[in-house]
Design brief:
Blueprint: H1 2-14, E1 20-24, E2 27-31, H2 34-40, E3 50-53, E4 56-59, H3 62-82, H4 86-99, H5 109-119
Parallel strand pairs: 2-4
Antiparallel strand pairs: 1-2, 3-4
Length: 126
């Protein structure tokens, strides 16, 4: 709940910059505007297409949200399992991986689960 509210708050703040908010596939999606600019600067190669906060997905654009929705839904389920501890667990694991010389994004078990599940499915499209 707190992460969903944070994501929705970021989307509402972004409305003045052209951010759009919509209900899509059981999630609140906020895309475009300043959210796009922020995600392009995410510390992973090429930036992030989307970021999940609870049941809210922040995405660069509607098109990138549609392409990454199945992956982000895995993160929604992870939030449901871990609750408010998901973000601290995700960041903690990423830091531990970085210290050990591993990739803090692609070696993160939360991302590995999302990529493993979505690589066996077709991409969700409208």
């Amino acid at each position: 709940m707190p992460w969903t509210l944070l994501g929705l708050t970021l989307g509402i703040v972004g409305l003045s910059s052209g951010t759009r908010i919509e209900w899509y596939g059981g999630t609140i999606v906020c895309h475009s505007g300043w959210i796009e600019r922020i995600l392009k600067r995410a510390p992973i190669p090429g930036g992030a297409s989307a970021l999940t906060l609870g049941h809210t997905i922040l995405a660069r654009s509607r098109e990138e949200m549609v392409q990454s929705h199945a992956h982000e839904l895995v993160h929604v389920r992870q939030y449901e399992r871990w609750g408010a501890f998901f973000v601290p667990a995700y960041i903690g694991i990423s830091c531990w991986l970085f210290v050990r010389g591993k990739d803090s994004y692609f070696d993160n078990p939360f991302e590995r689960e999302a990529y493993a599940i979505t690589s066996t499915r077709t991409t969700f499209r409208t």
